[in-house]
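tool=predict chain=A
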Amino acid sequence: MEFGLSSDQKIMQESAERTLARLAPLDRTRKAAETNAMARDVWDGLVELGAPAILIPEKHGGLDLSLLDAALIAESLGRHVAPVPFIATAVMAPLALMQSGSPAQQAEWLPKLASGKTLAGVAISESVSGARDGAGVTANGGKLSGKSLFVIDSADADIFIVADTAGGLHLVDAKSKGVTRIALETIDRTRSIGELQFDNADSQPLKDGKPKDALLEMRDAAWVMLAADTLGASQRMIEKAVEYAKERKQFDRVIGSFQAVKHLCAEMAAELEPCRSLVWYAAHAFDFIEAEASLTAAHAKAHTSEIGRFVARTATEVHGGMGFTDLLGLHYWFKRIGLNRQLLGGPERVRHLAAQMQGFAA
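tool=predict ok
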């Protein structure tokens, strides 16, 4: 069986590439990173493409497309290290509402998310990658207490989807009394990661359907999105390494003519290319092969994390001393890949979860 992208998917990704090439050059990313703020102009461009609406049903103003379509957008965002809050707003929060939100909650919030005017943050790290000391959120009578770390896309969020220690999901207005938002410093300044503290804060439980299943769906989808983002960032680092190798001269020869440099570039390409089909298949399985969805998402996240780190290191090595300077900006991709590796579980943690899924570990 031949598996590839449809013509519509190719056109969509090409449109995203053109938009991001125009709106998110490296200088725009650098400016956003200096202030650690999202690029509103880049987000507005993605809104025009319909990116925030990609998974949301048509009756709520969405495009009703697949996770593979969302993964293609994420791949492009990684290529351009775009400083925008895509994963939480366009993927995780809509899935939570679609799976566990009441009809009234869906009618209220899904159109707002689809329009791109409302941004979401997601706090499920404790439920997915394990709680740190003192972290965890408890729910009692529609009130939340405790704290959640490594909240995705937290800085500009208008609402939060929060998981409690019992596996329940809650929607929280960012302006609610008792909610404190704290920025966490990470190596990647193109995206916001934060901490939420709750002191008897009001929340809307998402209890229609099966919240625990919705939590797993959010986790699986986020793993695929992070893997796709890493795929795009890694591909761009390879391209930049090859471009540099064709221009940089030593001993009156371009360094790309040296066998050692050729091997480095070829090894990066050979290691990364299988990740593409792995990520695409994981995204496809999420929608169409339920029995394989969680396992393939785990494999995509864990394996692409490892290969991404290898590519980031090797591409920087090809650039030599120049690779560590701010002038080239390689560090933006390097750090993006590094944060993707650890968000919602590093490769060791995710492989352990994959082993549990298959009955290989307790």
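The chain has a mean pLDDT of 94. Strands lie at 120-123, 136-140, 143-152, 159-163, 169-173, 179-184, 193-202, 204-206, 249-250, 253-254.
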